[in-house]
Design goal:
With about 350 residues, the protein is of the alpha/beta class. It contains 13 helices and six strands. The protein has a six-stranded mixed sheet, sandwiched between helices.
Length: about 350
């Protein structure tokens, strides 16, 4: 290597090292600024609450105080002190008396979205998942709108209060195959009207075009491998609709799309694909592959007979193309908890 080439390499390495230092410093600075901003808003909320209690103000008087405060602060300091923002600061203090419990990875915009949720266990779940999955505010809103919390609680049959507490304390833990399931899966991002007939190949094509949204719906750790992945057995070719890899479980995830009700043949078909992947595709450090049938309709009793008895992990779940009714899901969870 010539001296000139050597200097070029050194320059390039030096630039990359300095870039890394600058970017890391900017990130650290941004986190500190964000933490200081949240603590400042918490202190403002404390001042409002202390004033209310000191003067024994009723709800109506408190609202008027906040309205007046918004006008005065906006005039004297500038933007950022709207009435809704001040109400959120007040709620931040009342809901998080220990502000240190809030992670520095949450922005004020995330916190405002979380404060809308009245159920403390549910809010805690979304708080943990926002950090664990590094959700943007758009992704957080989408998960709340699609009732992810309720769907996870209902994904493996009736749940008890211990499961609610577990989700609230840790977020979604992915330790085994069943942990990745949702009931139902929500594909509202495809823009398909409810009950509109669609071919399986068209559903697959739409999911691929919206692969980022699909990966968000599948959950943490999913990486897209490909669609229509060929399997050859005794010179006969078969094709898996969609293949993913989950880096947390270290498993291939094979997904078959069915735009009809779950049928008897569906389980055997996917089980065959799983046997092939386990024998021919898996590396030594891979865990056994997991199969999921996403179907337009399924009933639990029929699914038990179709999917029971396989050595492989074969699951079936319903998908919907519109956002589920939140209240119906909440009531379903409440009924499950009563059982």
């Amino acid at each position: 290597m010539s001296d000139k080439d050597k200097l070029t390499v050194i320059d390039r390495d030096l630039v990359e090292n300095i870039k890394s230092i600058i970017l890391s410093s900017r990130k650290s600075l941004s986190q500190r600024v964000n933490q200081e901003l949240i603590f400042t808003y918490w202190r403002i909320g404390k001042e409002i609450v202390d004033t209310e209690q000191k003067n024994n103000l009723d709800n109506q008087s408190s609202r008027q105080i906040i309205l007046n405060l918004s006008k005065l602060l906006t005039k004297e300091i500038g933007k950022g002190f709207s009435r809704s923002n001040l109400f959120n600061m007040r709620k931040l203090y009342t809901e998080y008396p220990d502000v240190q419990s809030l992670t520095g990875h949450l922005t004020w915009t995330h916190i405002c979205e979380l404060l809308i949720i009245e159920d403390k266990a549910k809010r805690s779940f979304y708080e943990k998942e926002t950090v664990n999955s590094n959700w943007s505010i758009r992704e957080l809103k989408r998960q709340i709108d699609s009732s992810l919390y309720e769907r996870l609680l209902l994904s493996q049959g009736s749940k008890n209060k211990e499961k609610v507490l577990e989700l609230a304390r840790k977020g979604q833990e992915i330790a085994n195959a069943g942990d990745i399931l949702k009931n139902p899966y929500v594909f509202e991002f495809l823009g398909i009207p409810e009950n509109k007939p669609i071919l399986e190949k068209d559903l697959e094509a739409k999911l691929i075009r919206h692969i980022e949204d699909f990966l968000l719906e599948l959950g943490r750790g999913f990486m897209f491998v490909g669609s229509q992945q060929r399997i050859t057995i005794n010179n006969n070719h078969y094709y898996v609709d969609m293949v993913f890899y989950n880096k947390i479980l270290r498993s291939y995830i094979l997904i078959e799309l069915k735009t009809t009700k779950l049928n008897i043949a569906d389980g055997g078909q996917l089980n065959t694909y799983l046997n092939y992947y386990k024998t021919e595709i898996n590396d030594d450090n891979d865990n056994p592959p997991i199969g999921i049938i996403l179907c337009a309709e399924k009933d639990d009793i029929t699914a038990e007979y179709i999917l029971g008895g396989f050595e492989n992990n074969v699951f079936a779940s319903k998908y919907v193309t519109i956002l589920p009714d939140k209240q119906e899901l909440i009531e379903e969870v409440e009924n499950a908890l009563k059982e």
